[in-house]
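Bug: token stream looks shifted between consecutive jobs. Job 1:
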Amino acid sequence: MIKIFCVNTQTTKTFNEGVTLQDILPEFDFPKPYPIIAAKVNNVCQGLKYRAFNSRQVEFLDYTSYVGRGVYCRSLCFLLCKATKDLFPGSKLIVRRPISKGYFCSLDKGDGTTLTPEDLEQIKSRMVQMVEMDIPFRRWEVQADEAIETFRQAGYEDKVKLLQSTSGVYVNYYTLEDTVDYYYDALLPSTGYLKVWELTLYKTGMLLRVPNRHCPDALAPFTEQPKTFEVFSENLKWNKIMGLDNAGDVNLACQRGEAPDLIKVAEALQEKKIVQIAEEIHERMNSENPIRLVLITGPSSSGKSTFCKRLSIQLKACGIRPISFSTDDYFVNRVETPLLPDGSYDFDNFDTVDHKYLQSDLLKLLNGEEVEVPEYNFVTGLREFNGKRLRIEPGTLLLIEGIHALNPRLTDQVPEEMKYRIFINTITSISLDDHNCIPTSDNRLLRRIVRDYSKGAFSAKETISNWPNVRRSEVQWIYPYQEKADALFSSSYIVEFPVIRAYAERVLMTVPKNCPEYSEVHRLLKFLSYFTPVSDKDVPATSLIRSFIGGSSF
């Protein structure tokens, strides 16, 4: 007999060895507003078919949890893959990336024809049919060589490359009837759980829409993101030119000793984009309605500060004198900071910035007046004045960087024609394989974990614990203004994960296994294991990544 401690009820019950989580669930009575679809077992994500042979701690999860959403969306992608395989033998489905509150997917039908509305209806009908049939997702554990051969026979060269470059002795994979696929974390017990989804034509492919994270009974609201899609498409184009579609391609290139060249190309592409933005700003400054203010924002750990400094250099090369300051210096005194429901400070709230005072200084500067700019002391939590004075001279351009820089309330008294808006994001263009895309947030979280730890600001445990609050604030205060930017810039590049792996692993290993945050640690460590580590010696001191791993010249 084994003992199962249920976190949801804070009670312990006894069961037979080998019992599944599905069998255990009815024995614990707790509120279930939405279906239970996954669990954390000893702080590690597991599917409901997981069998317990020893005493365990179990926390049951629904779709409103990050873990639950991952399990649901991976299973939904497999359902789509199965439907396309059934209807279009020889086709190739690629789950490209999360966008517009769904997943953008491309489908090569294998016959040279484009995807039609009739094709889409067939795919949807097949998916609905399989949901009604409640077909089980089956998990298999086999030797790596056997798994590689299975995927080779199925025509999945992307998975073959990934497993050849990273796998251990044994590999787990899944089947849905006669269709095989690989996912790096747990799936649902069966297709019958997939009640809420939609499939629509989108751009050059399809958009697989998923449930609302706060109300899983309904679809997440559609949000048009044409500029974001354009940036992603541009990055994808360069990946194809370099022959690097997925992690397996990157790994094999690094193992061939090509990492230094890949780093150089990635840095060159970013610099090229910064030059283009600087030249557009220069052109706008010399137009009939010249811009006088550049607003730069992006979510946490997107590289805003370093981008601002690199842009300043290129602006100087255009004959422009940039002056920059951060909205952080206009933070209210800490005791005046808005609070979260749990009573802690909400540092990402718009009202954390004294926006009235900031705009007053801004208008004075634009009118040619001199102002004394404050400097925020993050140790004391007080705004200080240390004699820093600014005045905008002819040919000078003001750059404002901060998470709220694009919020219209921050500069609502400045004429629109005077503003140029830039949004920085980490739009990850590579995937683990054709069916496992990489969330943008994973990129930024790894950066933040490494930076916070190296600077002594927060432990990895604290950074991970606070990350959900950061994400919620970004959704509320930052991302709504992404598509209003004049320019979007992606700060990620193709060899970032191989470079950051060694740094991140060392920090992640400091998190104890007995704390709730370890579930995220386990997931991130597994994710990083899919990338061949490379040295950072070829990463230049001006690189955006240097602001996270150290060694930046800025």
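Job 2, same session, no restart:
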Amino acid sequence: MTLLDTTSYGNPAINIAVFAVFVIATMAIVIIVTRQKQKASDFYTGGAAFSGRQNGLAITGDYLSAAAFLGVTGAIALYGYDGLLYSVGFFVAWIVALYLVAEPLRNTGKYTMADVLSFRMNQKPVRTAAATSTLVISFVYLLAQMAGAGGLVALLLGVSDKSMQALVIALVGALMVVYVLIGGMKGTTWVQMIKAVLLVTGAAVMTVLVLMHSGFNLSALLTSAQQAALDPAVGNGKDILMPMQQYGATIWTKLSFLSLSIALVAGPSGLPHVLMRFYTVPTAKEARRSAVWAIVLVGIFFLMTLIMGMGAAKLVGQQAIVAAPGAANSAAPLLALHLGGEIFMGVISGVAFATILAVVAGLTITASASFAHDVYNSIIKDGKASPEKEVKVARITSVVIGVLAILGGILANGQNIAFLISLAFAVAASANLPSILYTMYWKRFNTRGSVWSIYAGLVSSIVLIVFSPSISGSKTAMLGEAVNFAWFPLTNPALISVPLAFLAGWIGTITSPVRGDEELAVEMEVRSLTGAGAGEAISH
């Protein structure tokens, strides 16, 4: 039985009611946990008062965005094995982040990534570059979340009109700004913790229900999903268990796959909103615990996306998914409708909506903190701005970011959000990761190398994305097939932009007459290994 014979996707009244409950509940939580007056450190880091387990849940909530739940499930449902590669990449990335970045970054910094990158460099040019990359990456990431929100609500309310979907995206943006203005990092962290529990629990329930349909036989599930995909009445006629159906057609698609893999594995270690989460714990030990908790939960979740994606291909049907508002992003809600009816669909969709709200709030805090702390205070005011003024600027910035995200989300509406996230990962891997690794592990690295690396990675990745088939010249492009100014053949730029950023950082360093400050390099090494100076002394 598939959903091909219906155009109704649940009861809009039930869906709205469930949405309202989630929004009111999360807003109440934000208000309750932030009743006392907040200092600058509270707004940026939640006062660094969260345990490793709590922060691990929050990181999970931050990382498991709409792309992970809606986008990856949809990608597996439509592309099978090739879609599963998103899950593998997202998970492996956490191991990279844990071993190379998480602890030394937390130990060395204070509020933002720029604190680390500028520690032993000339402050202004490095902070400007780091803040610029943070703002751009956050914006690209926000586009994906906004697009996910538009597609999700369009499905639940049966809205196919683009103007109504644009209104929905505007509503999400407004709620995001309210979360940030009221709650800061503390309120956002609590929402992310609760959302992580709800998301993993909801996915677990859906996984069990899907397995029940196959007698808890994974092989039977995969076989039946394969047969459904091959059936032209319900599927796309392709074998979803066959590798490289999507990426193996030509040399360019193969290279695009390699580029995508680099972006997925290296990207999270350069994502500002994920890195900022490690500043919310009091010690390096808790930072490590955070990452371990996140790895376990993220790993379990992505295993479940395989079951949910294959379940959607079998029980919903690929053609029904493609025909629904939101297309690939609708696979998970439609599967919930098939498994548990309208109320279950409303609950799962409410969890997905809360996911989007929590992630965009975290992104907005990161971007606004970067502008206020790195640009306004450190560059414009030469570090002399009061904490209260800095937070005020951060709040104003969050409103501006909200408006820009709404406009961008309307443009990106209808795109697969897992794919959009992969573009954000590519920019993060190119602009931030090379400079972070050089800064923490190469004493010779200097200001010119850092600035060249950041700008080379940022500019090259953005330019290649703009002139790629992702934006124009293809059926799946953001601007459609009719508009065509694409000259870069790959759908993801990481294969070119990441090595270019590493090369630019190396050339910039060795050609600069200014050598790095030896004393600051030693101090940074000590801090990165011990956490000395990262926060106030605590009792063990």
